[in-house]
Amino acid sequence: MPIPWTPAIREFVLAFADDEHLMGQQHTEWIGVAPFLEEDLAFCSIGQDELGHAASLYAIVIGEGDPTGASGPSVDNRAIDSVAFDRNPGRWRSCNLVEMPTQDWAHALVRHWLYDSAEQLRWELISESKLASLAEAAVRAEREEWFHRRHADGLLDILMPDPTAGDVLRSALADLMPVAVGMFDPVIGEAAAIEAGVTAAPFDSRLPLWIDLVRDRFDIDPVLDDRAASIQQHRTVRSEHFENLLSRMCEVLDLDPAAIW
Fold first, then answer.
1. Domain ranges for the chain
2. pLDDT in 10s for each residue of the chain, 261 residues
3. Domain 7-255 carries which CATH code?
4. How deeply is 7 buried, as exposed, middle or buried, from its count of CB atoms within 10 A (0-12, 13-18, 19+)?
């Protein structure tokens, strides 16, 4: 029996879609300026995957709430673009980590690993969702996410043993961790999504496991504080970086309103 689609469940799925969207956009900004050609290509591919995952989740947000029953590939691309670009900032549910810019490669790489390691835990929670379209999206996404994690781990395997590179990466980690823990901040609708079987458990229940992954990966005890939790406020407040990011994202649409994402 299909689960009833509610505004709370919509908010829950929308938060994941927004994170995937902005992370994909952030990756694309390294295309052509990464340290070497292979990373230009890798970030191009990873960014494209994340944007594809975002489009799938936006299609669920639109389709499940459509009384005609339209969903998945049948959802019009312009409808997806409308959700992806045409909301005012207060309607976004992205976490601060995907909104902030990374000015150097060390921060971009560390954020890539932090996000994808958390993303794996997030997809796992909805892999057996009673919302069939979401469970199917999780299965499709994980096929690509495995390569994302292998890419980040492969680079860190090479760089971390080098004393200089290792110090630079651990410094980037120290900068990013207070913001990165905000990924686990409960979103509006999560409790309703758990009750309906849309997701298996609160995402923040996986935070201790993720912290262990960070500790093992970087061979350091990550320093945490309450800064991220205090500013996220269930993802209803945008960071200082959001406006500039959204402006860059909308440059093509501003030039050609008929363009399709």
1. 7-255
2. 678 999 999 999 999 999 999 999 999 888 888 788 788 888 889 999 999 999 999 999 998 865 444 444 457 888 998 999 989 999 999 999 999 999 899 999 999 999 999 999 999 999 999 999 999 999 999 999 999 999 999 999 999 999 999 999 999 999 999 999 999 998 999 999 999 999 999 999 999 999 999 999 999 988 776 544 445 667 888 999 999 999 988 877 766 767 666
3. 1.20.1260.10
4. exposed
Query: Nearest Cα to 151, choosing from 48, 45, 54?
Result: 45
Select from 181, 185, 170 the least CA-distant residue to 224.
181
Report the predicted TM-score, pTM, of the whole model to 2 decimal places: 0.92
Tokens (6 digits) for 65:
């709430």
Angle at 192 between CA 98 and CA 22, to 5 degrees: 15
Phi then psi for residue 54, to 5 deg, are -60, -45
Tokens of 244: 């500039």
Which residue blocks in the chain are alpha helix, DSSP H?
7-28, 37-64, 77-85, 96-99, 105-126, 132-159, 163-180, 190-196, 207-218, 227-232, 242-249, 251-255
Helix axes 77-85, 7-28, angle to 10 degrees: 80
